[in-house]
Hints:
The protein is of the alpha+beta class. It is 34% helix and 16% strand. It folds into two domains: 16-59; 79-170, Alpha-Beta Plaits (2-Layer Sandwich), CATH 3.30.70. The protein has helices at residues 16-25, 35-43, 47-59, 92-103, 141-158, and strands spanning 79-85, 108-113, 117-118, 126-128, 132-138, 167-170. Helix 2 (35-43) packs across helix 3 and helix 4 (92-103) packs antiparallel against helix 5.
Amino acid sequence: MNKSSHPPLNNETPPPWERVALRLLQKGLPICSRPFAGVAEAAGCSEKDVLALLQRMQRQGMLRRFGAILNHRQAGFSHNALVAWDVRDLARELRMQLGQIASECTFVSHCYLRAPVTEPGTAERPVWPYQLYAMLHARSRDMLEMHIEALQKALQAAARGCLKKPLVLRTLHEYKKTGMHYFS
């Protein structure tokens, strides 16, 4: 371990170069032959240190992968919808299964199971009962409708006909879409 190396990330304060490297990495990588070398130079460490940091973060489950982020609208996926289902009456295992089915669809970019929103002081009267959410993307309105129908049919089959009709919120205008910046 060289002098700029650091033990696995935990609650300790990381050395300054790690904070700088993570701040730079969360902004995205430059398109060049050695993108980590530029990050290392700016952070004041070696390329090997940056790669070791990323490997450590991956081993610890903090980093899943690196990938290109496309501007989905520029790539032709200009029709999007957030589709939400009220699954409160279904068993937890079935809710989890439905989320897994939705998340395996190639046209779904995000899929979440969340708590229903209830009136303050009561758990019986939901203001917003929807718990299962999926963000769908398509190149045309017709294709988006086909995706919604296909997903609803797959989920309905798994729920043995017990799934309520989803709420479909189509995107009218995108104001912001960016990755989170966890290190400032």
